[in-house]
Amino acid sequence: MTASLASPSFEFDTIIKNARIVTASEVYEHISAIGIKDGVIQAIATSLPATSSTLVVDAEGAYVTPGGIDSHVHLHQDNAPSGDKWLSGSRSALAGGNTTILAFATQEHKNDTLFPVLEEYHGRARDQCYIDYGFHVILTKPNPTILEHELPKLAAEGGISSVKLYMTYPGKKLDDGSMLNIMMATRELGMTTMIHAENSDMIDLVTKKLLEHQRTSPYYHALARPQIAESEATHRAIALATLTSAPILLVHMSTPVALTHARKAQSKELLPVHAETCPHYLYLTSQQLASTTNIHQDEHGHVHEDEDEWAGAKHICAPPLRHDESDLQSLWDAVNNGTITVISSDHAPTCYDDVTGKKKPVEAAKARGDGSKPTFAATPNGLPGIETRLPLLFHAATSPDMRPERRISLPKFVAVTATNAAKLYGMAGKKGSIAPGYDADITVWYPESDARGKTRIGNKMLHHAIDYTPFEGMEVCNWPRKTFLRGRLVWDRDIELKDGYGKGLLGGPGDGQWLSRSRGQVLVGRVGQTPAGMKVGEREEWGLKV
Ligand code: DUC
Ligand code: ZN
């Protein structure tokens, strides 16, 4: 495929040659060259002409994939004082092969208008981001002005084409009525509504009972948020979206029954219900929460283990890690059968050893000094994972060691890590693929024969500002070797390995551009489907334009 017939006068700033290009639809049969000019992919051909000023990068026959798009990350959130801010979070994203992140601008209850919120979040991110970025708006207290005037303005002029809602957490959760009102507004604007689906009252009841029975350690977090809480809320969220005909994305799905609700909505009812999961739900079980050992590597790669009865808190996230391998398998199956649309990191870290971090309840108990125990319920939720997402999933796509039932194809890897997010969130044609006219956001992996790709994950090698990784000690078969952001080489791991930590980051925190996103595409089902039991045109009677 070429943008035009290459002639000797066709000049490129950069050529990536000997590339085995992967897109969401195929692995190119022929080793190819990618010609880049002014930050954009201009041509793909079996070979391309270089001039004396062209930077020629040899991929050595390795796979070359679109730069990762992590469409669900939390940076500089007020409820995570020891979490990553934009600089460290985006640095870590880049070193993990990403070129775009979508983070959150959160409305607090005190905010009756969204504009100052967005201004604040723009200020937090500006000149602090190594890669391109955008925001989803978290709505915690919608009002008529926001729904009728502000969201339309944000969609039309503000470059925001998605909102997120919570069905759990005090201060964030919305009742069904509020969710319906938001869906009525977003569907008209073509915005995607992301939903954190867990039944808050079920979680409150079980948590209270566990604490009454002195079940306080981190492991009980996994019992406090049972699968039924996710599957009930998922079913309800789908019902609300069905009534209003609103495209939704169920974030961080972790539960087989919830997945069957999504699958049925997509395939039987053809509803625009998208689904997301994260590497931690694919790879880790609740056994991690029972850990009483801190494992870390020193600078020589030696592994140390220290006893710490609170260590399981490092794996506290919501929804929680699930108990059984069969739960994990249901997620791998859902990736492979198309139920899952995107795999994000849900990077939502707090440091472990910090008074505001995962050890907060331990520190608070010490401060109280009354002998009362720390509890899992007072531990901040969330895991770091922005840098490990792509290597963990690329491993599933390429490692011969991966169990057959958990393998994914390379085009599936590209679809769920980049292409689908670009389409769903209004960046199609610009981000998320390797094709003429697209931004030259490209990640080059190591050839299988290059031993430098094989990596044992250790927190020491990561570029976030967090003191642990939930994937400590796991081995992956490859790591992003070089990453181009709009045509510029901004990450080179060969340099990092040769010259030391941090040296592979060739880009800087001012490189990231804010992405004004347009209306997203519906990738599953269709808008306007008449729900079972309703007559065609029935909803028009109460004013819904379908
Ligand atoms: N759960 C959330 O709801 N948000 C961020 C992190 C987490 O684990
Ligand atoms: Zn999240």
From TrEMBL:
Residues modified as N6-carboxylysine:
164
Q: Which UniProt keywords apply?
A: Hydrolase, Metal-binding, Phosphoprotein
- EC numbers for this chain: 3.5.2.2
Read off the SUPFAM superfamilies from this record.
Composite domain of metallo-dependent hydrolases (SSF51338), Metallo-dependent hydrolases (SSF51556)
Task: Quote any Pfam family the record assigns.
Answer: Amidohydro_1
Q: Which domain of life is it from?
A: Eukaryota
Query: What general EC class does the enzyme of this chain belong to?
Result: hydrolase
The protein here is known as: dihydropyrimidinase
Q: Which reaction does it catalyse?
A: 5,6-dihydrouracil + H2O = 3-(carbamoylamino)propanoate + H(+)
Known cofactor(s): Zn(2+)
> One MF term in GO for this entry?
metal ion binding
Q: What about PTM?
A: Carbamylation allows a single lysine to coordinate two divalent metal cations.
Q: Does the keyword Hydrolase apply?
A: yes
Entry's family note: Belongs to the metallo-dependent hydrolases superfamily. Hydantoinase/dihydropyrimidinase family.
* Entries under InterPro entries matching the protein: Amidohydro-rel, Hydantoinase/dihydroPyrase, Metal-dep_hydrolase_composite, Metal_Hydrolase, Metallo-dep_Hydrolases_sf
Amidohydrolase-related domain ranges (all copies): 63-490
Record's GO cellular component, any one?
cytoplasm
